[in-house]
């Protein structure tokens, strides 16, 4: 199979699934300060219902953590070889706007893997969990690298769009992939800012994350407004292969809200800010939007699911539903 940056959606999806399972256990199981670990689950005292719920979640975390880590290694190797073949990169970047933004998927996937290492992997590896603060500086360096690469790619795309005629009327919701990548990079930086016990590391991560949040939020508002406007003008939905991309708005909304929330945790830790009202607003409002958009999109794509989805061949946009 010919390599494409869209291949990185596989480790991205696996990482998303394992983080969902981890997040549930983090908030459902009482444990000490910080992130939950496997030994925090009191298996002997759990009810049958709790055991039947927690055990599959732990199994899901283990399986998809392994899938994420193995696939990110394989695809990173493929990416290096692909970039070395400059002609393939130039050909990819000469495509329409919605395809070009796919170059940001590897950045998003690597950011997801960083979160997998700091949370689900540490859940299973006691030494990593106990030394999580020792991971903050390497994590900050990697976060900075990913942010710089993402900014470079964003400006490269902007330069390309400004230097040649751009038919944005052909854009679709895949055009939001760079916004999605900013969301995952934001989540990584905000996580470091809220977790680091070293004030300098936390502050650097917070400032860089606020920069990325500002850029990503601006792009989200501009692009989403334009895409909705174009869709309202259109008399029909895009091609069947493109329709699942509507679901991209759901994870984007959640990623940005959680990132803002974690930045507020940083402000609470180091500046004693009262974040109760603001955090409630961000989390509640974002999840209302995400759930509402998911229901609306599922209704909008009724014909897609009934008449096309089950008999269709794989297409990268289907990862948006994951």
From TrEMBL:
Protein origin, superkingdom: Bacteria
GO annotation, cellular component aspect: membrane
Keywords assigned by UniProt, alphabetized: Membrane, Transmembrane, Transmembrane helix
Example of a GO biological process term: transmembrane transport
InterPro entries, per database record: SLAC1/Mae1/Ssu1/TehA (IPR004695), TsoY-like (IPR059133)
Membrane-crossing segments per the record: 12-29, 53-80, 100-123, 135-153, 173-195, 201-224, 245-265, 277-301
NCBIfam families linked to this entry: seleno_TsoY (NF047643), TsoY_fam (NF047644)
Protein name (Swiss-Prot/TrEMBL): Uncharacterized protein
Organism this protein belongs to: Desulfosporosinus fructosivorans
Native organism taxonomy: Bacteria, Bacillati, Bacillota, Clostridia, Eubacteriales
């Amino acid at each position: 199979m010919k390599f494409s940056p869209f291949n990185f959606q596989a480790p991205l999806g696996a990482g998303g699934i394992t983080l969902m399972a981890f997040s549930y256990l983090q908030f459902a199981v009482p444990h000490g300060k910080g992130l939950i670990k496997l030994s925090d689950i009191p298996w002997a005292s759990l009810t049958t219902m709790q055991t039947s719920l927690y055990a599959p979640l732990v199994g899901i975390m283990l399986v998809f953590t392994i899938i994420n880590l193995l696939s990110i290694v394989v695809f990173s190797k493929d990416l290096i070889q692909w970039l070395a073949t400059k002609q393939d990169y130039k050909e990819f970047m000469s495509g329409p706007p919605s395809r070009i933004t796919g170059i940001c998927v590897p950045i998003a996937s690597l950011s997801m893997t960083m979160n997998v290492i700091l949370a689900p992997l540490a859940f299973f590896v006691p030494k990593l969990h106990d030394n999580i603060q020792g991971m903050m500086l390497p994590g900050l360096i990697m976060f900075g690298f990913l942010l710089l690469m993402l900014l470079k790619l964003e400006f490269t795309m902007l330069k390309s769009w400004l230097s040649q005629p751009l038919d944005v009327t052909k854009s679709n919701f895949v055009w939001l992939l760079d916004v999605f990548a900013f969301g995952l990079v934001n989540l990584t930086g905000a996580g470091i800012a809220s977790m680091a016990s070293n004030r300098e590391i936390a502050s650097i991560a917070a400032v860089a994350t606020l920069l990325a949040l500002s850029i990503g939020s601006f792009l989200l508002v501009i692009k989403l407004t334009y895409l909705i406007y174009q869709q309202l003008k259109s008399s029909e939905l895009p091609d069947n292969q493109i329709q699942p991309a509507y679901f991209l708005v759901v994870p984007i909304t959640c990623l940005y809200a959680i990132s803002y929330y974690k930045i507020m945790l940083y402000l609470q830790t180091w500046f004693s800010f009262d974040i109760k009202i603001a955090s409630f607003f961000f989390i509640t409002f974002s999840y209302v939007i995400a759930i509402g958009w998911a229901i609306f999109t599922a209704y909008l794509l009724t014909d897609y699911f009934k008449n096309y989805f089950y008999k269709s061949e794989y297409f990268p946009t289907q990862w948006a539903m994951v």
